[in-house]
């Protein structure tokens, strides 16, 4: 195999791996039952890991769904609550969200992250499960990635 062929094969493999990360999760029967029965902790916000403290004492950003169309969780500083509509086929939209009104920017950027989290929730139009993670998307773009919370439940939808 010459150098040109080797480079083409390597480039093709890299492109396939990149595209595999862009594939939207497919919703299967029973997925919503899994989503609605778990508390989810945020692991990625628009591709970035949430802010952590050096001591590791920050409560994770979370999301929980109730069976009556209510969602709630923790957004980094404030607790939030609101309504949602979901279908077993993968559509998901949040209604207006309310939140407590506390302030903290320790560590720096916490309030900006919280606002970005709320903005992302407002843009969500679909969900899916991928490798035991909840993926929330807007127009096919993965905005929020959650893992199941090891402690169930943490949020109580109001």
Task: List the defining traits of the structure above.
single chain, 158 residues, alpha+beta, eight-stranded antiparallel sheet, 3 helices, 8 strands
Describe this structure in words.
The protein has 158 residues and is of the alpha+beta class. It is 25% helix and 32% strand. The protein has 3 helices and 8 strands, in the order H-H-E-E-E-E-E-H-E-E-E.
The class by helix and strand makeup works out as alpha+beta
Radius of gyration: 18 Å
Helix content: 25-40%
**Number of extended strands:** 8
Shape: globular
The proportion of residues in beta strands is: 25-35%
- Residue-averaged pLDDT, rounded? 84
Strand order of the largest sheet: 5-4-3-2-1-8-7-6
- The number of helical elements comes to 3
What is the end-to-end distance?
Answer: 64 Å
- List unreliable stretches of 5+ residues: 5-22, 153-158
Pattern of helices and strands: HHEEEEEHEEE
Main beta-sheet strand count, sense and barrel state? 8 strands, antiparallel
Fold blueprint:
Layout: H1 3-22, H2 31-36, E1 39-45, E2 62-65, E3 70-74, E4 79-86, E5 92-99, H3 110-123, E6 126-130, E7 133-138, E8 141-148
Antiparallel strand pairs: 1-2, 1-8, 2-3, 3-4, 4-5, 6-7, 7-8
Briefly characterize the structure.
The protein is of the alpha+beta class.
């Amino acid at each position: 195999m010459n150098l040109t062929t080797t480079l083409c094969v390597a480039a093709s493999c890299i492109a396939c791996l990149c595209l595999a990360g862009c594939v939207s999760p497919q919703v299967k029967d029973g997925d919503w039952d899994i989503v609605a029965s778990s508390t989810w902790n945020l692991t990625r916000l628009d591709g970035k890991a949430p802010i952590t403290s050096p001591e590791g004492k920050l409560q994770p950003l979370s999301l929980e769904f109730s069976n009556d169309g209510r969602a709630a969780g923790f957004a980094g500083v404030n607790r939030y609550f609101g309504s949602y509509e979901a279908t077993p086929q993968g559509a998901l939209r949040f209604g207006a969200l309310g939140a407590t009104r506390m302030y903290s920017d320790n560590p720096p950027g916490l309030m900006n992250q919280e606002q970005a989290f709320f903005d992302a929730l407002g843009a969500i139009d679909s969900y899916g499960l991928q490798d035991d993670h909840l993926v929330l998307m807007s127009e096919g773009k993965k905005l929020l990635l959650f893992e199941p919370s090891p402690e169930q439940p943490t949020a109580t939808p109001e």
